[in-house]
Design a protein that fits this description.
Elements: H1 2-6, H2 9-21, H3 24-31, H4 35-49, E1 54-56, E2 61-63, H5 65-88, E3 97-103, H6 110-119, E4 123-129, H7 132-140, E5 146-149, E6 158-173, E7 183-184, H8 186-189, E8 194-197, H9 202-213, E9 220-224, H10 227-235, E10 241-244, H11 245-248, E11 254-259, E12 265-273, H12 280-291
Parallel strand pairs: 3-4, 3-5, 7-11, 8-9
Antiparallel strand pairs: 1-2, 5-12, 6-10, 6-11, 6-12
Length: about 300
């Protein structure tokens, strides 16, 4: 309790902006204060609590482990402050702010983004990609608000909306396999160079599990980070890749191959951190999904 009493709001605010903006000068500019004033607030916070929050050198400022922990807390603090302002605001009709989305594939979002933008045109949306592990970690660090993952069970701390499911297929460049068949077994596919995504990929995990059950060794010749990068490597004729059918789309360089002896499906889910589900920008996006039907290219969700 003594530590809480001794902390000043101005010190916490100064720390938060230095950490979020990436430096003391940028934080001072964002807050309309001088850099020495910001530096003194942070120095006092560190001194009062006998901690080091930043590693300082001439070129850059980085967070210490304690600073990283505190930043997660201050993100929560200022988000609650924004929610209080929203509750007390007289005009809550127009939703604005920023919504950061991280997805395993942007193809699952196109229709939803269009619907959301139509309803809330003042909200700025940023979208980046990552695998399921990266997405869940980003949400827990408050580095994103919404995630799209290849899992129906990302964790008990997540609120989940199913987006449906799509079968996993193989694909190859048309020049790689002469007289390319429409379907191949995992054992047949294993004879070719395999292009895998990174270890955190749900597609890869499902493939390796299915192959192990059939005593087939799927050994990657090349490991590539990101679905788009896998597609480019495969298109160059380097080997066979794997993807959910919805994400495959159309590429004149590539041919789809059904996996004959293993029925695997990627269940896509929209997720947010449960403790943040009352934040208006997050809730409004989750509600868009609740109102809509599954993606037109996706059958009903499967727990596989």
């Amino acid at each position: 309790m003594g530590a809480i009493r001794n902390m000043r709001y101005s010190q916490i605010r100064a720390f938060h902006h230095v950490a979020s903006c990436g430096g003391f000068s940028r934080a001072a500019e964002a807050l309309g204060l001088t850099q020495p004033a910001i530096s003194e607030q942070v120095r006092k916070l560190e001194s009062d609590h006998d901690v080091l929050l930043f590693n300082r050198d001439r070129k850059q400022v980085t967070l210490t482990p304690v600073g990283e922990e505190l930043l997660i807390c201050t993100k929560k603090l200022f988000e609650v402050q924004d929610q209080i302002s929203e509750v007390l605001s007289e005009n809550r009709a127009a939703l604005d702010g920023k919504l950061r989305i991280i997805a395993d594939s942007a193809s699952h979002l196109t229709d939803r983004l269009k619907a959301y933008r139509k309803r809330h045109p003042k909200v700025f949306i940023s979208v980046r990609t990552g695998n399921t592990t990266e997405i869940v970690e980003a949400l827990r660090r408050y580095d994103a608000e919404i995630g799209v993952v290849g899992s129906l069970n990302p964790g008990p701390d997540m609120e989940v909306r199913s987006l449906g499911a799509s079968p996993i297929i193989a694909f190859a460049a048309k020049t790689l396999i002469p007289d390319l068949p429409e379907a191949m077994t995992l054992a047949q596919i294993a004879k070719y160079p395999l292009i895998f995504r990174e270890a955190g990929s749900k597609t890869r995990q499902k493939l390796e599990k299915a192959a192990a059950a059939r005593n087939v060794a799927l050994i990657p010749a090349i490991e590539v980070e990101g679905r788009e990068a896998v597609q480019d490597v495969v298109a160059a004729g380097a080997g066979v890749g794997f993807v959910s059918e919805t994400e495959f789309g159309y590429d004149a360089r590539l041919t789809r191959i059904s996996i004959a002896d293993a029925e695997m499906a990627m269940s896509e889910s929209l997720i947010c951190l449960r403790q943040r589900n009352t934040v208006r920008t997050i809730r409004s996006f989750m509600d868009i999904i609740a109102e809509g039907a599954p993606h037109p290219n996706m059958p009903k969700a499967s727990a596989d």
